[in-house]
Design a protein that fits this description.
Strand content: under 5%
CATH topology: Hypothetical protein af1432
Number of strands: 0
Shape: globular
Order of helices and strands: HHHHHHHHHH
Radius of gyration: 15 Å
Number of domains: 1
Largest sheet: none
Helix content: 55-70%
Structural class: mainly alpha
CATH architecture: Orthogonal Bundle
Number of helices: 10
Distance between the termini: 34 Å
Length: 186
């Protein structure tokens, strides 16, 4: 049976209990859909990759040496596009042991990572509302290494490998997250 978005959401809630992590996955889905629209790719496929990319995060205790490798087993009873599984495996370069090479891999790495920077940027605004965040502020925060220090700037910059300059990528990501801001606590 082909995996639907609702089944994906159900699985996410089954395997991920952290509300912040669920918000991150929903934000990643929104950004991946935005990237897919911009590049003329399959929005459903790319959205599912964003939604499910951290499905194994609690199963693996976020261990960077294995995180991303267990999702395929968690999805074994479903028909899941091999491209989705590959992008999910490759979003964590530590566990994959390989460098990302495809557009889909780069998109997921950049798309899911920028959500963390955008969320952190939102939290420093007085009203803590995504609607107040300006994409240029996100780009400015990219240069501040101590701000949201765990966010890998090099992953976000993979947006340029798929033909989207960082300034445009920040706009795309913020605009993609805005429609679900309330749903993700921003």
């Amino acid at each position: 049976m082909t995996l639907t978005r609702q089944q994906s959401l159900d699985l996410l809630h089954q395997f991920v209990k952290s509300e912040k992590m669920i918000f991150h996955c929903l934000a990643s889905e929104a950004v991946m859909r935005g990237i897919a629209r911009k590049l003329g790719r399959d929005e459903e496929k790319w959205g599912l990759a964003g939604l499910l990319h951290d499905l194994d995060v609690e199963v693996t205790h976020a261990d960077p040496l294995v995180h991303g490798t267990q999702t395929e087993a968690l999805l074994k009873e479903f028909e899941v596009d091999s491209g989705i599984l590959d992008a999910i495996r490759m979003h964590n370069e530590c566990s994959s042991g390989k460098e990302r090479t495809t557009e889909f891999q780069h998109a997921l790495a950049a798309g899911e990572t920028i959500t963390g920077l955008i969320t952190a940027t939102t939290y420093v605004y007085p009203d803590k509302k995504l609607s107040s965040v300006k994409p240029k502020s996100v780009v400015k925060r990219m240069k501040e290494k101590m701000f949201a220090a765990s966010v890998k700037r090099e992953n976000i910059l993979e947006c340029e490998k798929i033909g989207i300059p960082i300034d445009q990528f920040a706009v795309l990501a913020v605009e993609s997250m805005l429609p679900i801001a309330t749903e993700i606590g921003l």
